[in-house]
Write a structure and sequence with these properties.
The protein is α/β, with parallel strands linked by helices. It is built from 7 helices and 7 strands, in the order ααβαβαβββαβαβα. Helix 4 links the parallel strand 2 and strand 3. The N and C termini lie far apart (75 Å). It has 2 domains: 31 residues; 142 residues, Oxidized Rhodanese, domain 1. The strands form 2 sheets. The chain has a 5-stranded parallel sheet.
Length: 193
């Protein structure tokens, strides 16, 4: 058998192995059923019917990156601890907001909703806080928690003169409404209850 006939057979076998392996994985590992697009998040949030849209970024990040009034509230999932430096990551330490689930539940109750409502979380890129916050909420009884894939600012360009800039996707790059200043009534603040 010559090599040109063997390659398609090997490729087919590799594909079959991949399919068989993926069938053995738990459902959560197969596909990201927590993620929704920026446009779907905007559509759901504009309905305001049993939906809570939460910006889960640290408020200081919002001051530098921007904000959208489409969100109902800012409740950080991870909070920056400016007293501890993470040398490995080259930044201040982040810790999970210990009151995150309770604050989400409080925001739902304030709007006449319960833990069965749709909760949409959004961070900068969707990866470090968006998806983990939605998974955390689901693990804590918020069955309809989702996150915005690519988040507010999107993904970084990998090559070229704008390498490293977050210009590929996300809320801002999808042309959805945003502003440079946060809404003082929605931003997470320690100066009010």
């Amino acid at each position: 058998m010559n090599m040109f006939k063997i390659r398609p057979i090997l490729a087919g076998l590799a594909l079959l192995c991949a399919i068989a392996f993926s069938a053995a994985l738990p459902v959560s590992a197969k596909a990201d059923d927590l993620g929704i697009s920026t446009t779907k998040a905007l559509e759901l949030s504009s309905q305001k019917d049993n939906v809570l849209f939460v910006d889960v970024r640290d408020p200081v990040e919002i001051l530098f990156v921007g904000f959208t009034d489409a969100v109902d509230i800012n409740i950080p999932y991870l909070i920056v601890d400016r007293t501890q430096w993470d040398a490995e990551k080259g930044r201040f330490r982040l810790y999970r907001n210990p009151d995150f689930a309770a604050q989400i539940e409080g925001a739902l109750k304030a709007r006449g909703m319960d833990k069965n409502a749709t909760v949409i979380t959004m961070c900068r890129s969707g990866s470090e806080r968006g998806k983990p916050s939605a998974a955390f909420l689901q693990e804590n009884g918020f069955a309809n928690a989702h996150y915005v894939v690519h988040g507010f600012q999107g993904s970084a360009i990998k090559e070229g003169p704008q390498k490293g800039l977050r210009l590929l996707n996300g809320w801002q790059n999808d042309g959805l409404p945003w502003q440079s200043k946060p809404n003082p009534d929605k931003i997470y603040r320690l100066d009010r209850p």
